Amino acid sequence: MNPPPPRKTELSGPATGNEAFQLLSDETRLAILQALWEADDPVDETPIRFADLRERVGVDDPGRLNYHLNQLADNFVRRTEEGYELMDSGKRIVRMLLSGTAIDDPEIEPVAVDISCWYCGGQPEWSYREGWRYLECTNCEARCVESFPPGVISKSEFPPSGLRDRTPNEINEADRIWGAHRRALVMDGVCPECAGEMPVTSVSVCDDHQPDWEEYQFCENCGSIFWMLVSHVCERCKYQWRMPTLFYPSRHPAVVAFFYDHGIEFDLATYEQRAQLLDFEEELLSEDPLRIRISVPLEDDRLWLTYDERMEPVDVTR
């Protein structure tokens, strides 16, 4: 007799999502969170006294401050015998504000960076606008996705706070690491926004895939240069991510070992090795059940990985 499936944990908290938004809609409460954040010392976490907090926030009426503290208590602020301190949820709110995602809208004009276009080997330029970073090739008009302007070889979200006190090349490197870890989380089924469950919701296979590989132009039938695309959607916050199936072998230890045996420390997070994806070959073995085989060639050697509808590997052959 099979055991029953494990029950998913159901969490209940002091405030729902709507209530949390309402709690943070007051300027005094936001000022309290900021004051507690500024008073926080990660090395010496000592709560701040009521009188000190009142002075930092600039509230003359003690009753008014106490009222707002009561509204924040159990959700964002912890009251102790020594005073008040931010809960982790409160710290996340302040970090979001400090990251600039809620207040800043900076722009950086295109500037050359020390990498090569993985399509043509030309010189890309890095730019930033409307919360997105862009890599645009100055040598080709590659358009791997229909929604990208010509020449944009990569586009992704990046917090404005990551721009501060960095050169363009340092920003580009931070962006590379940021994106690689977020992509790895998605492939592992964990939402990079809220840590909720983020399963594969669909695997799209173009029925008549005809991209122009010579000019690196997307297929007009599916809107992508890639034949097969995987979609993940977070069950908690609805965050979505879509990427080619070709990324998934990079997470398998057999692939890392395969390249290592040939003297290559393989890491698709690096721009230099991103071009390796273009050498991977896909094969649709069956549609029901879905089975996709990806071939990884290297010199005179080859590695095959077969995936199911959840993009879980079911077979590895060398």
UniProtKB/TrEMBL annotation:
Taxonomic superkingdom: Archaea
Classification via CDD domains: HTH_ARSR
Residues in DUF7347 domain copies: 18-96
Residue ranges constituting the DUF7351 domain according to the UniProt record: 115-311
Entry-linked InterPro entries: ArsR-like_HTH, DUF7347, DUF7351, WH-like_DNA-bd_sf, WH_DNA-bd_sf
Membrane-spanning intervals of the chain: none
Protein name: Helix-turn-helix domain-containing protein
The organism's taxonomic lineage, starting at the top: Archaea, Methanobacteriati, Methanobacteriota, Stenosarchaea group, Halobacteria
